[in-house]
Amino acid sequence: MGSLVVFPFKTEQPDVVLKNIEIAARHGSVDEVLCVGSEPESTYRAVEKAIPAVVSRTGTPVGLVLQDRVGTMRPGKGDGMNTGLRHFVDSDHHRLHFYDADITSFDDTWITKAETSADLGYDMVRHYFPRSATDGMVTWMITRPGFAILFPDSELPRIHQPLGGELLLSREGAETLAGDSRVARQSDWGIDTVITFSAVRHGMSISEVYIPQGKIHKLYGQLTDIRRMVIECFSAIHALRGEALYRPITHVAQPAERVPVAITEKTGYDFEATMRLVPETFTSRQMDLLSALPTPAGEGMLLAHTGNVSFLDESLWRDVYLALLEEYIAGDDDWEEVLFLVWVVRVLAYTAGVAGHGYEVALRYLERTIRQYMYQGT
Ligand SMILES: Nc1nc2c(ncn2[C@@H]2O[C@H](COP(=O)(O)OP(=O)(O)OP(=O)(O)O)[C@@H](O)[C@H]2O)c(=O)[nH]1
Ligand SMILES: [Mg+2]
């Protein structure tokens, strides 16, 4: 009666994935490791070839499967996680861990901390990490504001990293999520949002454990690489409009005790390259959509390409967000583009106006902004 560790992976460096598999397989609490690949491409082949040696070194079974088509959205990480979840439900392991496969700072303490917290009886244990002031911009600008605006009285906006892919579920917690059709449907990047929502919706108890060395993983170069992620994470929030949360939950978080200098001084992305994503002109349909946003935002966007991004401060962002919750049409290409671009400009405005004042100031500002959104309500 031990734990199953699942690594969903797509195209990653095989040695990084294999090192993580081996760390998990060597851990005393882990009875089995399961890797869920997205397609039979080169990473998958390399992992497949190397697994027998890992098994013979560690004595732990290591499985490798392709993800099933579980959901109804774009087939992505959600199908990978749901495939892992189903394997777990059909097994007799008593706990399930998920970890991203691309993490280079993963070690056995991540598993141990989660197990120790789970021993106290929590249904879900979430890892959270120190992050640089310009990291986590989908979390800070999309997910936490969305939870704060839609569910201000719940624990949702109080969860540090609601998009985190590193978490443990008790058997009961995993079975609850596996039985939620909203989770099963969400095959895309929205999966993390929906798992977090579902856990709170079902009244699961949640503990957050702090990993001081941080999550060091493959970084996106330009913000374009996360365009899909922004769109799918916002769409997942958008689909939760009108949902109600009934029950308070138990939620504890270990304090964030220290933050490495490498993180406080890190820049998350290339400002100039990102600035160039903001177009000089918009199509007439996109102009129409921009005019559905609050006037200072719609007008500001037309001039943002000149470098004037400061108009999109935290209070205007809330109004833009409320308008998006009302007006956005899921799957509409022009809305997707407008959403992505207003997010880009919001991130640039924050980076230029706040992030430069240092890690402490920036993080306090980000947290304070989420509190403001909670107290303002919809
Ligand atoms: N099975 C499966 N795994 C996926 C898929 N897409 C991504 N992954 C894996 O999910 C994990 C998280 O993906 P990343 O691309 O690292 O995303 P992220 O770390 O949340 O965001 P970034 O900051 O953009 O790296 C990694 O292990 C990926 O290899 C998919 O379609 N199927
Ligand atoms: Mg990653």
Strand order of the largest sheet: 3-2-1-4-6-5-7-8
CA radius of gyration is 21 Å
What's the architecture of the largest domain, going by CATH? Alpha-Beta Complex
* Ions, cofactors and other bound molecules: guanosine-5'-triphosphate, magnesium ion
Shape: globular
Which fold does the CATH topology of the largest domain refer to? Spore Coat Polysaccharide Biosynthesis Protein SpsA, Chain A
- Sheet-strand content, in percent, reads 5-15%
Separation, N- and C-terminal Cα atoms = 46 Å
Count the domains. 2
Q: CATH homologous superfamily of the largest domain?
A: Spore Coat Polysaccharide Biosynthesis Protein SpsA, Chain A
Low-confidence runs of at least 5 consecutive residues: none
Q: How many beta-strand elements?
A: 8
Average pLDDT reading: 95
Helix content: 40-55%
How is the main sheet built? 8 strands, mixed
In short:
This protein is of the alpha/beta class. The protein has helices spanning 14-26, 42-58, 77-90, 108-118, 137-150, 171-178, 181-185, 191-201, 227-238, 261-264, 271-275, 284-291, 295-303, 314-327, 333-353, 359-376, and strands at residues 3-9, 30-37, 62-66, 95-98, 124-128, 167-170, 206-210, 251-253. The chain has 16 helices and eight strands.
Task: Describe the secondary-structure layout.
Blueprint: E1 3-9, H1 14-26, E2 30-37, H2 42-58, E3 62-66, H3 77-90, E4 95-98, H4 108-118, E5 124-128, H5 137-150, E6 167-170, H6 171-178, H7 181-185, H8 191-201, E7 206-210, H9 227-238, E8 251-253, H10 261-264, H11 271-275, H12 284-291, H13 295-303, H14 314-327, H15 333-353, H16 359-376
Parallel strand pairs: 1-2, 1-4, 2-3, 5-7, 7-8
Antiparallel strand pairs: 4-6, 5-6
Helix pairs in contact: 1-2, 3-6, 5-9, 5-14, 5-16, 12-13, 12-15
The structure holds guanosine-5'-triphosphate and magnesium ion.
The site of magnesium ion has 4 residues, from loops.
